[in-house]
Amino acid sequence: MIELHHQRPTPNSFRQLGGCGLPAFPSEVGQMTGLRRLNAAMNRLRDLPASFEGLTELRVAFFLGCEFEVVPEVLGRLPKLFMLSFKANRLSCVPERSLATSLSWLILSDNRLASLPESLGSLRGLRKLMLAGNALARLPASLGKCTQLELVRLSDNRLAELPLSLLSLPRLAWIALAANDFNRRAGEAGWGVGGGPALPPLLPAGSVTLVQGVPPLGRGASGVVFRGVLTSGASASSSGSYSLSSSSSSSASFSSSSSASLAVAVKLFAAAKTSDGDPADEMAATAVAGATGCPHLVASFGRLSPDDARAMALEACSNGGSNGGGGWGGGMGTGGLGLVLELLRGYSALAAPPSFDSVTRDVYPGDGPALAAAPFPGEAVAPGKKFRLATAVGILASVAAAAAALHARGLTHGDLYAHNILLRPLSSEPLPAEQPASGQHPVEAGDGWAVLSDLGAAFFYRSPGQPPPLTGGGGAGGGGSDACWLLERVEVLAFGHLVSELLARCAPRAGASDEAAGAADSAAAVALVTLAEDCRGAEVGARPSFAEVLRRVQAAAAIL
């Protein structure tokens, strides 16, 4: 037993006890009154002693991968608990008194929960709720009282209908609902082969290889993306155009043939289930997104055979020093799932994902802690990175076009964030062979051409062939057009945040002395401020659709 009671922590202390084999905490743990952060992940813990309530300063508690079947009620008596994680335990019960009302971030993913307590509604400061991978058939009615909730993950549950009370929450901007019963019913209506949306085509065995000696392009909750080569024996093409303004359009096309090889991105899924749901849903979403022809969505060449995916995963693990695959852990690639995607060479992410301090808001280059944690809706910001207004408008037009294309086919992105927006490099000249395919490049210049990436949290809320609802009325039981109407407008709030974030980071034109140019900038900025206000309105159903958002961004672009 680790003798915790001999440790006298300072008020800012942190205890790292992950993977120590702990079967239980000693009762003296309550004497660690200054403890603020505790990581007890990957232990054999099944309960907590009553003395735990002595940890009155505890803000963060991680119990990932332990053996809890019930959330201990003593945790509900901790007055400052901010973040609590019981991911991947054996939970089947969350008692009414087990959740501290101070919680802002609650993680209960990958358990056996069939219900949640009504006391969840007492968490009035809850901002982030992770519930994927359980057996929830319904949500407590009290969840509608969590008016500060901004992000919720509910993929891979048993929800039979879209929860209207949840969708009506004024600050909810990011939601994932893939692999629930209401999705499966839609699949049974004939979306594609096998009772679900059609998957990307299967690529011939051996047609894709990983590039050795280079780091991964990126990694996330569902897997890792590597550089690869699509060789002879496979072919695919996709092209399309989308207007960025009323007077211009752009297109993107790519193809491979038996006589050529093509640089591609290869996403290997970490397991058959992820924190956002089933990788099959991401692959289906990718297929539908590619079929839109929108150049602001990452196109797919197809999916890997299970044998190829497993072989690449083993290769990446064994060569972890050269291509970074070693960080996946023992479960890497066991599901045998992989996607081959368009490689966006030289593109860079607009921002970094949310930090511990910002909880749900992205962190832009140069942002300080105060900015990252700025409140909504009246932020007072002083960001470090600056954009030209024309660049910001180009980014917004790109993202609006991508989101409009998705929602026109009943598909929510689920993670519409700046960190999933990739910006085209400053020059259109080909990058040298040694240039990384993605990385930290300047983002303040260029025309703002961008691509919305990462469909890991995407889900279908109606058949891609079903027309969108014309009004917010007429839904029945939370599964009709009411819910469809609200779901799109939940994601519109995420876009409204993006508009505000970029406008807060816009700088005047360099050397702009032209009165007409200054007036144009002012008029476009006013139009975008108004758009942001409409997108962030507290009444969810009154927000504009993405088709309307795109039209208004195009109108602002035409002013410049």
Model description:
Helices cover 22% and strands 16% of the residues. The chain has 560 residues and is an alpha/beta fold. Among the domains are: 208-342, no CATH class; 348-559, Transferase(Phosphotransferase) domain 1 (Transferase(Phosphotransferase), domain 1). Strand 10 (218-219) and strand 11 (223-230) form a beta hairpin. The longest helix has 23 residues, at 481-503. Residues 5-12, 187-195, 235-258, 325-331, 370-382, 428-445 and 474-480 have low confidence and may be disordered.
Lay out the secondary structure.
Elements: E1 14-16, E2 37-39, E3 60-62, E4 83-85, E5 105-107, E6 128-130, E7 151-153, H1 164-167, E8 174-176, H2 181-188, E9 208-210, E10 218-219, E11 223-230, E12 237-245, E13 248-255, E14 262-269, H3 279-291, E15 300-303, H4 306-318, H5 320-323, E16 338-342, E17 348-349, H6 369-372, E18 387-388, H7 389-407, E19 411-412, E20 421-423, E21 450-452, E22 459-460, H8 481-503, E23 506-507, H9 515-535, H10 546-559
Helix pairs in contact: 7-8, 7-10, 8-9, 9-10
What would the keywords be for this entry?
eight-stranded parallel sheet; six-stranded antiparallel sheet; 560 residues; alpha/beta; 10 helices; single chain; Transferase(Phosphotransferase), domain 1
